[in-house]
């Protein structure tokens, strides 16, 4: 940690230098499957894991967990914001890994403006300049909130900008609603189907668009839901509570569907219930 602080203080250009010399790889290898570790939660103020409200706030601990996860066989890469990716670049942890930059983190968790999800993270030009491999954006839609239209519009333009650079972009769509003053996501089959249909049609081309989708409330609905689009998709891990084995079973079934190409999982693998990051990651990789 002290070396990272020293480099950031006295040699900030080290980030760009590390990005320039990083060994890259194709997004997909021969098996055609992806296993990505997600760590873009902190930049939206979402630091909790289970009942631990600030679990992800310790940066040294988070980086240690990420480096361990990235070292495991079968892990392809990481999804994170600039601060975390800069740290990982300086640590040399991104060699021969897929690097996905998180693009919109403006919809802070619990904020009144949560659905005004502006693009405050990586821009398409940043991802191209740093030689990163893809971007990811969050698309939450509340039919009762006019700010969702702003997010839709900016999402479409971001997809266009990524396609111009031939950079894949993972779009994570949700239909949302407010209840008891809080924002909730609807994981029912109809809502997830609608979100996929909306996300698939954004922008001037869908050639470089991937979907990042949750498993539906009833996992048996996933086969029908995923018929909504021909775009390649990865599964979102999400919060799984204490039922780690139940989550693995849901992912296992959904991974058999034709358009599902892999997993993007964060907190449930980085902070597993039993504390064994390596075992959690290895189990998830085994599902692929």
Automatic annotation (TrEMBL):
It comes from the Bacteria. Residues 32-285 form the Cgl0159-like domain. Pfam families: Cgl0159 (PF22649). InterPro entries: Aldolase_TIM, Cgl0159_dom. This is Deoxyribose-phosphate aldolase.
């Amino acid at each position: 940690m002290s070396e990272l602080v020293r480099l950031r203080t006295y040699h900030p250009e080290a980030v760009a230098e590390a990005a320039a010399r990083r060994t890259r790889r194709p997004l997909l290898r021969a098996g055609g499957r992806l296993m990505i570790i997600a760590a873009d939660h902190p930049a939206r103020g979402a630091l909790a894991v289970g009942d631990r409200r600030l679990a992800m706030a310790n940066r040294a601990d988070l980086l240690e967990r990420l480096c361990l996860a990235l070292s495991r066989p079968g892990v392809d890469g990481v999804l994170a914001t600039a601060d975390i990716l800069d740290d990982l670049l300086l640590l040399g942890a991104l060699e021969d890994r897929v690097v996905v930059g998180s693009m919109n983190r403006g919809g802070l968790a619990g904020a009144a403006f949560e659905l005004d999800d502006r693009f405050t993270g990586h821009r398409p030009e940043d991802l191209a300049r740093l030689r990163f491999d893809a971007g990811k954006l969050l698309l939450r839609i509340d039919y009762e909130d006019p700010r969702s239209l702003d997010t839709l519009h900016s999402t479409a333009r971001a997809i266009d900008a990524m396609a111009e650079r031939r950079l894949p972009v993972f779009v994570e769509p949700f239909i949302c609603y407010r209840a008891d003053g809080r924002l909730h996501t609807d994981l029912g089959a109809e809502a997830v189907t609608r979100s996929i249909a909306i996300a698939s049609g954004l922008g001037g081309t869908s050639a470089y668009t991937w979907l990042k989708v949750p498993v539906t409330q009833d996992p048996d609905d996933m086969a029908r839901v995923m018929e909504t689009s021909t775009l390649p998709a990865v599964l979102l891990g999400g919060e799984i509570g204490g039922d780690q084995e139940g989550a693995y079973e849901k992912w296992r079934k959904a991974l058999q569907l034709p358009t599902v190409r892999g997993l993007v999982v964060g907190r449930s693998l980085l902070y597993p219930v039993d504390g064994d990051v390596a075992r959690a990651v290895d189990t998830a990789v085994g599902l692929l």
